[in-house]
Amino acid sequence: MKRDMELVRLILLKIEEEYRSTAIYDLKIDGYDMETTAYHCKILHEAGLISDYGSQYADGQIWNFGVGSLTWEGNDFLDKIRDNSQWKKVKDTITQKGLPLIIETIKTISTAFVTAAAEGVANSILKNINMSQ
Question: Order of strands across the sheet with 24-25?
């Protein structure tokens, strides 16, 4: 099965929204079947972005699955790509540069955007402080 980074983002957003204190069973994402969603939850767990993943199979097919909360790293990753316009900007940059749409590339590009924005804010604050003195 091919990894779908759009689905990865949707799963992280859904877990953040729905998780309270126990596992979420059979997480549903509009437009995706259970098998595809479960596979992506499994690889998100392997990547360390969600805390738990478990599944049960019957007759060679997935019967049910459960996921835990986002990890610290999962929360950080989601914070960088939560905003739709930021997510589009990251994907467009990756595509324009011919880079692979993988978690590490997304982390690097989104971190660069966040860092640049933070530096811009810091420089603006420093400029305003210097002007008022």
Answer: 24-25, 61-67, 53-58
